[in-house]
Design brief:
Layout lengths: L3 E3 L18 E2 L5 E3 L12 E6 L5 E4 H5 L4 E8 L4 E12 H5 L8 E6 L4 E5 L9 E6 L2 E2 L9 E3 L12 E7 L6 H4 L18
Parallel strand pairs: 2-7, 4-13
Antiparallel strand pairs: 1-3, 4-5, 6-7, 7-10, 8-9, 8-13, 10-11, 10-12
């Protein structure tokens, strides 16, 4: 199924061009891009798990996850389909918080989601304040079309790395390409280096 896209209502050119990666244009909207149907997981059935190359797995129910220390922050986001959206505000739990107490020698992780979506990331790219599992956008609960009830957010990489509907982080010794990476997208996805596809 091809990606769906809606929500484009023109471009905005009044921002600092130094905040816009090469090849990107601004949108004031929040386009919806998905490779399949939108999952709707009841909160009573939702959980988040850290497993894989760890001494002991960790898991949280929705209520346990929401009880963790949260942060509200504002970042720019950049989609590989060339739109950028500036000053987006989110609330969620830092991946650093989730990894507290997790013992591992892994250097990578695979985020996995409802709908069988996966994406791979170096562990260092979700550590030290670089990534969150978010559940609110603009002060409101995150809508399912944007990855709610919770999605991974890794704003310094192209947005496909910010897995919607996230349910787990599998720590791995080796880098294992995820859904879009196996289909030819760049394994890392740095928007400032235009790493859209393999070979970029």
């Amino acid at each position: 199924m091809p990606p769906i896209s809606r929500g484009f209502h023109g471009r905005r050119a009044d921002a600092d061009p130094g905040r816009i990666p090469p090849g990107q244009y601004l949108t004031p909207d929040f386009p919806v891009l998905s490779a399949g149907p939108t999952p709707h997981t009841p909160l009573a059935e939702w959980s988040l798990t850290i497993h894989g190359a760890v001494d002991e797995p960790a898991s949280w129910t929705w209520d346990e996850f929401r009880a963790l220390p949260a942060e509200t922050f504002t970042v720019d986001i950049h989609c590989v389909t060339k739109w950028s959206k500036l000053d987006t505000t989110w609330t969620g739990v830092s991946v650093d918080t989730l990894l507290e107490g997790v013992t591992t020698e892994a250097e990578y992780l695979t985020a996995w989601s409802d709908g069988d979506y996966t994406t791979n990331l170096p562990l260092e790219d979700v550590s030290d304040g670089k990534a969150w599992v978010v559940y609110a956008y603009g002060g409101e609960p995150l809508e399912p079309e944007h990855g709610g009830p919770a999605r991974l957010l890794v704003p310094h990489l192209y947005f496909w790395k910010s897995a919607k509907w996230v349910r787990g982080l599998a720590l791995t010794a080796d880098d294992e390409p995820g859904f879009w990476e196996a289909a030819g997208y760049n394994n890392y996805g740095d928007p400032w280096r235009e790493q859209r596809y393999w070979g970029d």
